[in-house]
């Protein structure tokens, strides 16, 4: 395709605008948990930083839009997967990125009604949510261009990939800035003549320019460093299950990751992180106001968590900015459990409705592996 790849709302000279004019067409948010973080934050069990109350809808229309040519679009892949080194624009959040490697995940889409013969027992306390057969889907581990990170930070978290520290410090949490998971359909592939088209501290450590690669393969190849890092951290990076459900045009997607076990006061504490994306599939402007979580542990406990917003935000979902993505953490004193819940959504007329968070399992199946490594070089 001989069309230019255009990024909306991002320009390397954007610093000349004041903060009022750098709200972009995308965004993500701050992490949360119950740990001490080496790049700060994380309170609450089910995704809360200190609550921030808002009495009016935030403006969802970006100001100071700019267009910038970054390369030439390529044809979308209808079959197969994108290769390591593929440059792309994120179709929802708009940032520039590059593919490191693919993952194969099972998507459990509760919007797809399975045949009666395929139905499975519901997890404890799931209150009638459908259990569906998973379908294999391709996701990608990617690097985000650091020039774009400040402009997506209101809509999409750029430090969502976190690791527990080694066992010497049971409360430390490490984040890898500018690392993301991207679904196949969110990739808008393009090519560029630049030898370093993405700015990220890991770009040249993980990838090398290879002009001899034949078209249409991307001209970047994986270094041994990337292959070793992927192999060593595979159990901690890999996403295996993706859960999705839509309520009144608001789609919620959840991806859980097991992080490891820690000893605390003569007991074991198991930790997970989970990434949540909310998407407004309709045209009505709405705002997330509250969260309501139910957390069931194999030990037999059922915990309820209510709070204002998520990670200290009450995001507006509109046609111009339809999605919001964040990451949080949860711990159990049992090796497995389930989570589910609802988000309270407010319309512009002040009325509310609840959006279901699809139930997802928390499984600890990687304790025989070594602790994650590779966040320092």
From TrEMBL:
SMART domains membership: YccV-like
Which GO biological process annotations does it have? DNA repair; error-free translesion synthesis
Q: Which keywords does this Swiss-Prot/TrEMBL entry list?
A: DNA damage, DNA repair, Mitochondrion, Nucleus, Phosphoprotein, Transit peptide
InterPro entries found in the cross-reference section: ApaG_domain (IPR007474), ApaG_sf (IPR036767), Hemimethylated_DNA-bd_dom (IPR011722), Hemimethylated_DNA-bd_sf (IPR036623)
The answer to whether the entry has keyword Cytoplasm is no
Q: Name one GO molecular function term.
A: DNA binding
Presence of keyword Nucleotidyltransferase: no
On subunit structure and binding partners, the annotation says: Interacts with PCNA and POLD2. Interacts with SSBP1. Interacts with PRIMPOL; leading to enhance DNA polymerase activity of PRIMPOL. Interacts with POLH. Interacts with POLD1; leading to stimulate DNA polymerase activity of POLD1.
Role description = Involved in DNA damage tolerance by regulating translesion synthesis (TLS) of templates carrying DNA damage lesions such as 8oxoG and abasic sites. May act by stimulating activity of DNA polymerases involved in TLS, such as PRIMPOL and polymerase delta (POLD1).
UniProt-recorded name of the protein = Polymerase delta-interacting protein 2
Q: What is the lineage of its organism?
A: Eukaryota, Metazoa, Chordata, Craniata, Vertebrata
Name the gene behind this protein. Answer: LOC100380766
């Amino acid at each position: 395709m001989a069309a230019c790849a255009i990024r909306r709302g991002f320009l390397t000279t954007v610093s000349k605008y004041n903060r009022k004019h750098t709200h972009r067409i995308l965004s993500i948010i701050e992490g949360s948990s119950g740990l001490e973080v080496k790049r700060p934050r994380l309170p609450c069990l089910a995704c809360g930083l200190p609550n921030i109350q808002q009495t009016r809808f935030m403006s969802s229309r970006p100001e100071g839009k700019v267009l910038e040519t970054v390369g030439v679009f390529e044809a979308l892949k209808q079959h197969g997967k994108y290769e390591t080194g593929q440059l792309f624009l994120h179709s929802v959040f708009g940032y520039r990125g590059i593919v490191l490697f693919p993952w194969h995940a099972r998507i459990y889409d509760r919007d797809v009604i399975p045949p009666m013969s395929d139905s499975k027992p519901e997890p404890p306390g799931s209150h009638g949510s459908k259990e569906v057969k998973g379908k294999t889907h391709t996701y990608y581990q990617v690097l985000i261009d650091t020039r774009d990170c400040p402009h997506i930070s209101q809509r999409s978290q750029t430090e969502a990939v976190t690791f527990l520290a080694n066992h010497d410090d049971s409360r430390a949490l490490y984040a890898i800035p500018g690392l993301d998971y991207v679904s196949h359909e969110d990739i808008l592939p393009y090519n560029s003549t630049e030898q370093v088209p993405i700015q990220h501290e890991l770009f040249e450590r993980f990838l090398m320019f290879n002009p001899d690669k034949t078209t249409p393969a991307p001209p970047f190849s994986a270094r041994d460093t990337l292959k070793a890092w992927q192999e060593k951290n595979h159990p901690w990076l890999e996403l295996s299950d993706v859960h999705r459900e839509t309520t009144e045009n608001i789609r919620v997607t959840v991806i859980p990751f097991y992080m490891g076990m820690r000893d605390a006061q003569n007991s074991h504490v198991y930790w997970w992180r989970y990434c949540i994306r909310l998407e407004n599939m309709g045209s009505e402007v709405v705002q997330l106001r509250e969260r309501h979580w139910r957390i069931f542990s194999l030990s037999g406990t059922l915990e309820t968590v209510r709070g204002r917003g998520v990670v200290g935000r009450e995001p507006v979902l509109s046609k111009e900015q339809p999605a919001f993505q964040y990451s949080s953490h949860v711990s159990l004193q049992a090796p497995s459990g389930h989570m589910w819940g609802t988000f309270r959504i407010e319309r512009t007329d002040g009325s509310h409705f609840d959006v279901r968070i699809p139930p997802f399992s928390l499984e600890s199946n990687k304790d025989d592996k070594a602790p994650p490594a590779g966040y320092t070089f």
